[in-house]
Amino acid sequence: xxxxxxxxxxxxxxxxxxxxxxxxxxxxxxxxxxxxxxxxxxxxxxxxxxxxxxxxxxxxxxxxxxxxxxxxxxxxxxxxxxxxxxxxxxxxxxxxxxxxxxxxxxxxxxxxxxxxxxxxxxxxxxxxxxxxxxxxxxxxxxxxxxxxxxxxxxxxxxxxxxxxxxxxxxxxxxxxxxxxxxxxxxxxxxxxxxxx
Length: 196
Hints:
It is globular, with a radius of gyration of 17 Å.
């Protein structure tokens, strides 16, 4: 299910968001792009074109007894994450599922962390996977319990900072978060200090 949006307005808002991110990556001291690359060869991140088909509302089914599980990282350290619930949705005509996580130290925080891989991983997008963040929403119906869901906007899918600088260690998506479709939305592969 997708929520109705104005495609032109949405594309412009996304363009502005990406321009702000590129400016941060180009000029901030906190940028993951090494200073030398920012000064000589950085020309912005690479993105797939905006595509409203990759903005979907997912049903959220929290696990009855969420466990804290160890997720690995690109440098081999362990990142404890609360395995919070399952996101169920349709993408490009395929039934899909992803597990949503929360920071183990902040289980009541509203943010859901959704690391994933897809068919583009390792070719058109970063091989180790990409990230999404979203928040749980509840719709209450008369005389019924609330329905939980979350908006998954894959146009906002982003690469972890280790994609730009090997000094960083980034959480790896678990095997269960591998999608059977090509998510041609969000950030693309970044190489050689510039958008590819």
